[in-house]
Amino acid sequence: LSIKIDPNIYALVKQTSLPEDLGFGKYFSPIMVSAHYQNNRWQNLCLKPYESLVLDPATMVFHYGQSIFEGMKAYRNNDSLHIYRPIDHAKRFQLSACRIAIPELPVEMFVTAVTELTRASAPLIPQDEIFTFYIRPFIFADQIGLGVKASESYLFLVIGSPSGDYFSDQAVRVMIERKYYRSAASGGTGAVKTSGNYACSLLSDYNAKVAGFHQSLWLDSKSGKYIEEMTGMNFFVVRKGKLVTPPLNNSILSGITRNTLFYLAKELGIEVVEKPLPIDEVTSDITNGQIEECFICGTAAGITSVALLGEESGQSYALHSVNGPITTKLRQALNNAQRGKIPVPKEWILKI
Ligand SMILES: Cc1ncc(COP(=O)(O)O)c(C=O)c1O
After folding, report:
1. pLDDT class for 338, splitting at 50, 70, 90?
2. For 236-284, how does the pLDDT look when each residue is reduced to its tens digit (9 = 90+)?
3. Is 256 a pocket residue for ligand 1 (Cβ < 6 Å)?
4. What's the whole-model pTM score?
5. pLDDT tens profile 117-151
6. Is the distance from the beta carbon of residue 299 to the nearest atom of ligand 1 less than 6 Å?
7. Which residue's CA is the nearest one to ligand 1's atom 15?
């Protein structure tokens, strides 16, 4: 599959210098990939300078939100550079597209796009192992018009951000969201990565921060009784030495980190149970010590330990063990897997 490469990109990368303190998703490689869907096909895949977009005010994405994205990473392992699980991200991107009537982008085109962006951006990815290259592929409807319908044209873009840690704290305080729900209901869009899911979460995120928490924990929208996931991460507890997480219904995102942890836990001899987690049972098991540890996981933040769950009104349930033994063991294994330091299924690591 061919991608057109603008020869100016190499000089642009060479001229770019980034600060030492990168943070997360703040600084960008000066190049990007784009492709256009027009006349019933994806076309014009090219790698070119990062540039602003000029969009008509009646561009459909502004009005009806037809937009999806992925979040994935490239890692350095000594002298080599690789992308982690690009095919799985490509497939999830297709599921997201399908759900909101965006034409699927071929897996091969997705993989070529992320590979070439990463290859050309390599000089900007620091050697030090606390850094990664966060890759953000996205698609939005760029047809002009106000009729409510699926757009007939779309733009696919991929940008990349050399990044450090997502959370600056060692453990997070999580607010149980009792009042609002994301777009995640049975038959809704929670199981895919549409931008609207995140728009729905932002008021809760704001309220959580005002109340002194880092993030919101979403409950199922039907009964409000069961834990689903975080705004951008999946949720796990350690109960009596076993790893427990809610099963994938059709409203939880099938996290690639979650799936990696299933594989790693098996290797480490830790039992994983997919089981509905009633919020009230979890808070009481935290209090009585049956739940020993709790963590959240995703591409952006890896494994982050939960220090406490709490209500917006103030009552909170502190975990007995923060960054406890199982959380720490799994975090180490996850880092090693993502960095290509331990054996994993071979299609998970795409060397650049
Ligand atoms: C809602 C939601 N859940 C879970 C995750 C974790 O998924 P992954 O491990 O594939 O990054 C993400 C991040 O993409 C997310 O946005």
Report:
1. very high
2. 999 999 999 999 989 999 999 999 999 999 999 999 999 999 999 999 9
3. yes
4. 0.96
5. 999 999 999 988 889 999 999 999 999 999 999 99
6. yes
7. 232
Q: Contacts for 267-272 with beta carbons within 8 Å, 24 or more apart?
A: 267/333, 268/329, 268/330, 268/333, 270/241, 270/242, 270/243, 270/326, 270/329, 270/330, 271/241, 271/242, 271/243, 272/242, 272/243, 272/244, 272/245
Q: How far is the CA of 232 from the centre of ligand 1 (A)?
A: 5
Predicted confidence at residue 187, as pLDDT, reads 87
Q: In angstroms, what is the span from residue 149 Cα to ligand 1's centroid? A: 28
Q: Is the CB of 246 under 6 A from ligand 1?
A: no
Residues 69 and 198 sit within 8 Å (Cβ to Cβ): no
pLDDT at 185: 82
Q: Evaluate whether 336 touches 268 at the Cβ level (below 8 Å).
A: no
What's the pLDDT score for residue 186?
Answer: 83
| Residue 312 beta carbon below 6 angstroms from any ligand 1 atom | no
Distance 11 CA to ligand 1 centre (A): 34
CA angle, corner 71, sides to 65 and 73, nearest 5? 160
Nearest ligand 1 atom to the CA of 299 is 11
The CA 299 to ligand 1 mean position distance, Å, reads 7
What tokens appear for 232 in the block? Answer: 């951008």
SS3 110: helix
Question: Is 92 a residue whose pLDDT tops 90?
Answer: yes
